[in-house]
Amino acid sequence: MTLKKEKETEIITPQISQMPVEAAAMPMPQAQSTDSNKTEAPKPTSDNHKTINAPMVGTFYKSPSPDEEAYVQVGDTVSNETTVCILEAMKLFNEIQAEISGEIVEILVEDGQMVEYGQPLFKVK
């Protein structure tokens, strides 16, 4: 900043005091897979059944719409590519495939229930 008076020139510079600053240790975020087609491998249970697990966090729906039949019911036979439910995440509806073959023994969650990543959804034998 410069101020001028008739024939004199006065220069004013701001005073800046410097203080040593230490960088805080920041934890690095872990890389996460966002591919909704990859699921955790089916886990065998103690009674020789396998489970179909949630590949993502979301809301579980057993049918494509409230007035339609469920994708699968107890006693139904499924193959690797059979759609077993829908998981809604951020207003996107993701069809979930069984990825294993067998018979549905038990549905472990209720329609409209929030599920976590890796949470068992179905028991299959």
TrEMBL record:
What CDD domains would the database entry show? biotinyl_domain (cd06850)
Protein's pathway: Lipid metabolism; fatty acid biosynthesis
Bias-annotated ranges (Basic and acidic residues): 1-10, 37-50
Q: Pinpoint the Lipoyl-binding domain residues.
A: 49-125
A cellular-component GO term for this protein: acetyl-CoA carboxylase complex
* Chain positions covered by the region annotation Disordered: 1-60
InterPro entries linked: AcCoA_biotinCC, Biotin_Carboxyl_Carrier/Decarb, Biotin_lipoyl, Single_hybrid_motif
Q: Where are the transmembrane segments?
A: none
Q: Which UniProt keywords apply?
A: Biotin, Fatty acid biosynthesis, Fatty acid metabolism, Lipid biosynthesis, Lipid metabolism
Name the domain of life. Answer: Bacteria
Report the record's Gene Ontology biological process terms: fatty acid biosynthetic process
PROSITE patterns in the record: BIOTINYL_LIPOYL
Say yes or no: keyword Transit peptide present: no
Give one GO term, molecular function aspect.
acetyl-CoA carboxylase activity
Quote the function comment for this protein: This protein is a component of the acetyl coenzyme A carboxylase complex; first, biotin carboxylase catalyzes the carboxylation of the carrier protein and then the transcarboxylase transfers the carboxyl group to form malonyl-CoA.
Descriptive protein name: Biotin carboxyl carrier protein of acetyl-CoA carboxylase
Q: Which organism is it from?
A: Staphylococcus aureus
Q: In the record, what lineage is assigned to the organism producing the protein?
A: Bacteria, Bacillati, Bacillota, Bacilli, Bacillales
Which gene is transcribed and translated to give this protein? Answer: accB_1
